[in-house]
Predict the 3D structure of the following.
Amino acid sequence: MRVRGRLSWGRRARVGAALAALLTGVVPPTVMLTPGAAGAAAAGATVCEIRDDRLSEISGMVATDDGYVVVNDGADNEARRRIFFLDDRCAVRRAVSYPSRPRDTEDLAVGRDGTVWVADIGDNDRTRETIGLWRLAPGADQPVLYRMTYPDRPHDAEAMLLDAADRPLIITKGGSGTVFLYAPTTALKADAATPLALVGQVALPSTTTSNPYSFVGRSVITGGATAPDGRRVALRSYADAFEYDVPDGDLVAALTTGTPRIVALPDEPQGESITYSRDGRSLLTVSESASQPPGTRPTILRYPASAAPTPQAAESTTAAPSTSTPGSPTAQVAGIGVGRVWPLAAGAGTLLALVAVGGVLWRRHTLRR
């Protein structure tokens, strides 16, 4: 997801979604307008800096035994459309090209046998007829593309997880704090599009973590990660990581019924990537740098993975249940969940707040370079 001097279509769509959510009351104005708690959470510790100029729009990352694997999102520059293998000091040691042009690669996962899966699932305009997964087997020179189709309509998505059987799970980006889970109905085939099924939805906890996109940044999912032992997974927003326990291998049940622990990722420039360290003790992140001042390099940051939940923490992070039905095609419209509807008549104060927030967001995005 790129940020230019002007608002891209994707940026306009996200700002519009947030403002539409206010108008329809999907998110209470008193929550959306709460300022981020700047300085309340510690920044991540620097692991290493990526100095290769091809890696300015990193959207997915996984840690390996000897370094990292990263991908850019839908880069215009052909040289950036690669699967990049880095050493433990963030230097590129190998770059694997695609046999055809990917659309919008947004996340990564590694299977039990070391296979790298690239999620080509981004769709800012929600117009794609199919989404794709690129499978790069250990030692292979090129990845193989598997196409998939949604059962209802196109969705924008930036996160993918693998379950205990290496079955992919696609997590939509959302926009109002509710995201949807889709899984293949059959085994993936390289010569046919595999239908997806809606298998659940997740209501994200509310936070006040400071980030460049305010309340919008706290209500979307931009990446996912699985711990090396498979017993924990994390979803991230632009502001936080939500860590879920997966004690019995049932990934969907863990996400839809579990209570996440929150790890704040404050003020990352444009955080879209997350992975566990190989020992499982840390969460590692990296931001896109294309929209940052000249000379800014993407930097891998380390945060302690969350400890076991306490009763107090569990109570404070429990998400309110949604009343929308996961199987209903109307459960999500343009990335905005409709299960938590508030009255339209919020009063003149809400309308004034809407105008103010819209102006702030517009100015923030147009001035970012």
